[in-house]
């Protein structure tokens, strides 16, 4: 039976003009739709977004998903599709994937990521493969990949890093230490400036005596 312009009693076994479907045909799901202060029943082949189909002896019903930010669920506590902007992980929805898992953007799912071990101790401070002869060098530490990611497209965290360090031995034993060329250039430049200043001062004294 139809009441008004819309077939609100489609698929119903019993129907009310004011409340819509009261009982549904076999295999259909009863869904109680709310619009403002009004609510009415509908009989659907599949439940709408945010609901899942619950089959019961008396009548199949659409039950609301109890998982936050879930668009479609398999059961009350297991989401199969999250709302836009959320990642699905073990039946739940997350803004970002938990630790140890990486985001698979094309499916908006969290998959097992790349696991790395603990950092090693910092290595010996060196420069140009030498541990002496310089004031500053670099020291490096590393860590191993414990578990490769589920997808090759998921990158692993950095497994090596370096930092600036001060050499334990500035001078190398068994050889004469030489100052860097830069230091020599500075001394030579300073000497030239002193000689030039002395020369200009001598010229000034000679000119001053002539004028007297």
UniProtKB/TrEMBL annotation:
It comes from the Eukaryota. One of its GO terms (biological process) is Wnt signaling pathway. The keyword Signal applies. One of its GO terms (cellular component) is extracellular region. Residues 175-212 are annotated as: Disordered. SUPFAM superfamilies: Growth factor receptor domain (SSF57184), TSP-1 type 1 repeat (SSF82895). Residues 9-110 form the R-spondin Fu-CRD domain. Belongs to the R-spondin family. This is R-spondin-2. It comes from Dicaeum eximium.
């Amino acid at each position: 039976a139809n009441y008004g312009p819309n077939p609100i009693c489609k698929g119903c076994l019993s129907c009310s003009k004011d409340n819509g479907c009261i009982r549904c045909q076999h295999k259909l799901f009863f869904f109680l739709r709310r619009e403002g202060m009004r609510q009415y029943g509908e009989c659907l082949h599949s439940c709408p977004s945010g609901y899942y189909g619950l089959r019961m002896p008396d009548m199949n019903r659409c039950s609301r998903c109890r998982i936050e930010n879930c668009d479609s669920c398999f059961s009350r506590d297991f989401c199969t599709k999250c709302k836009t902007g959320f990642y699905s992980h073990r039946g739940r929805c997350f803004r970002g994937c938990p630790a140890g898992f990486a985001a698979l953007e094309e499916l908006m799912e969290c998959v097992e990521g790349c696991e790395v071990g603990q950092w090693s101790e910092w290595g010996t401070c060196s420069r140009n493969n030498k541990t002496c002869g310089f004031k500053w060098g670099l020291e490096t530490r590393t860590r191993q990949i414990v578990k490769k990611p589920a997808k090759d497209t998921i990158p692993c965290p950095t497994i090596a890093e370096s930092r600036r360090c001060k050499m334990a031995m500035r001078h190398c034993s068994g050889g004469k230490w030489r100052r860097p060329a830069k230091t020599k250039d500075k001394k030579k430049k300073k000497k030239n400036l002193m000689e030039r200043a002395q020369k200009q001062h001598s010229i000034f004294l000679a000119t001053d005596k002539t004028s007297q």
